[in-house]
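help with these tokens:
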Amino acid sequence: MYIKWIFACAWLFIVKGASAAPLDLDPDFGVHGHIIFSTEQPQSVGVNSVVQPDGKLIVTGSRQKVVENQYSAEMFTRRFNVDGSPDTGFGINGESRFSVRGFDDIHMITLQADGKILLAVGAREPCVPYTIPTPGCATNSGQKSVYISAIVRLQNNGTLDTTLGGKGFVEATDFYSGDRVAVQPDGKLLLLGAISEPRLPVSEWVANWKLARFNADGTRDVSFNGGDAVSSRCNTLGSALLIQKDGSILVGGSSNSPENRGICIERLFPDGGHDLSFNQGKIYTDFGQDATFHSLEELKDGKILAAGRYMSRYGGDQSARQIGVFAARFAADGILDPGYGNNGTFLYPVAEYYWHVGSTFARDGAIIAAGFEYIAGEQQQQYRTTLVKVTPDGHSDPRFGNNGILRSSRISAAYDYLRGFLSDSTYHWFMISEKTLSDLSVGVLIERYKGENMDGLPVVEFYNTSLDHYFITADAAEAAAIDNGSAGPGWKRTGYGFMSGGSTSVCRFYGSMLPGPNSHFYTLAGSECDSLKQQQADTSSTEKRWNFESMDFASTLPVTGGINGSCSANTIPVYRAYNNGFSQGIDSNHRISTSHEAIQEVVSRGWINEGVVMCAPN
């Protein structure tokens, strides 16, 4: 790689659009794009999921049983290969079953850097519910079943990792629920839960989040608040947990108090102390009563992005309502970013009855938020999946569906609820739902959609004789626009190209018209892509720099790169040549092609052969 690429490349700026139907099921997954499996029980508790870096999907949940009025629930985790088949190297025939106290439910799943699987769990002993004198649940011995929090850690093969607490799990008995878990770079674990506390002088109980930190072996970390759990100062239940790059900890939750409605984000120092430089330690943002906080992300520039569901009530009796998606972006110091949406916030009404499930990032850095809306009122129990796309600057994307909202044409039956939405590294979309099966047991429906995936699409090459520049795109709409002159005169197809497809997305960068470089550059996601993103963050917009545009088509890393590079079986080399424009004082450009002859043609004119940079499907 020539680091001088940061200053060179030339092409005219165009707007990139979508060219695939995102809600088309992917026929390469399962049976016609979906999988269904039974939990073997008439009731289940929650469904959570995560995609591994290798593309395998992990789905978790709990099977609830009732025997002689006593409730219990066993947790399960299933892993599927990229094609949707069960991963038989995981657990027993692809499934792992385990328990903490016997009546357990999983609230979150995440991965450690070493591939181990972390679960945030709420746990209690099996029990019989009662309502007098106050609601509760009693064990066989007649004692109250106490609800606690726990972290479960599994090995990559699905077995319990006994290096955590000696049993594969560790309990926190000083708070309940086990809502979120996060792992620090040093391997320490954060567990977010809740506790009910009296609020004085008013005689009422409020629920607050609690946060504890554990060492990698499951012992309490005494360097974090002396080993005790940290309490919320916002009077909120925690639903979002984020470790920032500098080690600071963000916790977000929903607030329904009359004086502070909406969401509240708090920042802690790495030792658990409240960071008062962050807007006095907490940020309230008013999104109305009954807002639900779902996601919290730190962007490359250090800004903070939050998203979830809001509800607005109107009319004389406040009975009418509109429910939709909210997003907000904050500066690193906690102040709303005026360059995002409407003075830092975005509100998009969806329907009178709408439930937000989750969100993921699009190729261009936008948010795709997913949920379901009831068709004929909440009691009718018929719904459809609804997606909203929020642009990186906080507006609805007019190119997505109908002015930023995309509704599924399929109507789902009663109790078949969408529970999860996520994407893989090549931008397929997964939707995970509970489904009532013909034997009345609860099943899990996993669907993989095309989403923004570009596998199998041709990557087309263009050439401009006046500029002596090359350009490639896998977007059919973009290619058609170039054919029609959207990028200026002189661009013609060369007839060369290759197929998109592989395990790694390609990062697409563009400079600028001024100060430049007026061109695009492509590199596989990884160290080079990350380096250019960091240089963008460190370089003023008044200076030449590469600006990240989107994750583009997918390809595969070479076995070895460079001049004598090679590719794995069933793939062919993709070469790159550089026109050495920086040294010549002109806009630089790269030719990317599977044709060795095409590369040699520009090399004979003084271009530099960079060798194999990626591998395309054969």
Q: What stands out?
A: Confidence is low (pLDDT under 50) at residues 1-19. The chain is about 5% helix and 45% strand. The CA atoms of residues 122 and 177 lie 4 Å apart. Residues 3-14+455-617 form one domain.
